[in-house]
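Researcher: Please translate sequence to structure tokens.
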Amino acid sequence: MSDNASCSHDCSSCSSNCASRTAPQDLHEKPHEGTHIKKVIAIASGKGGVGKSFVTSMLAVLMSRKGFKTAVLDADITGPSVPRAFGLKEKAVGNDSGMYPVMTKTGIGVMSLNLLLEQDTDPVVWRGPVIAGAVKQFWTDVMWGDIDYMFIDMPPGTGDVPLTVFQSIPVDGIVITASPQELVGMIVEKAVKMAGMMNIPVLGLVENMSYVECPDCGKKIEIFGKSHIDEIAAQHGVKTVCKVPVVPDIAAASDAGKIEEIKGSWLDDMASMLEKL
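Model: Translation complete:
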């Protein structure tokens, strides 16, 4: 027992339920020595294909434009798309001390598995624990330096890997990305509830592909059905909601590696909220 002088402080060989054994354990990993990260924002989604990587990259760009030092940790190991959005071609390098992030044209640090693979199209056929281990290494082994805002492009869903990320990395808040379909509304609620279980606040909701704006009259046409994102936000007490339209220029710029050149005010409210954290 912990109050006994004979206690060895080795809980693995002791069955006593003492205070030391039952106290909540902090499972957060420490970042690389010399790395100082002020705020960590995770961009999550209940399912894939809703533009989570675009939102992650764009928020990093917007905060960088405000003068903050930003970085992107691509935790979507099996579907890494952040390097392509920024047009990154060079591979990440390192030394005995650790790895260096690859810097974008405007000075945003990025680490993604695609920056380590010999070929971008090589598949990552790994089991969950290995994927989660790689994500933790991106946090612990990369020499990020001084960062004001780190954005984590989370793997979709509420499974083993997202759970491990939330337990291992001290996330300050989550921004959830969704598309307008009715089914996704249900999936969004699952993501919100997972955040609550992990005691991480949901800072905002982004509805991607929310509408198409008529080029002639400016009318907003909800081609994927009526939006329910405001109702979901109100239900869960989320104050910041952004809606991103279907704009061909967005997809073209992302595919061309020119996301840092995109202009638009769709996510400005989210960036302003993050600036006030």
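Researcher: Any highlights?
Model: The longest helix spans residues 182-197.
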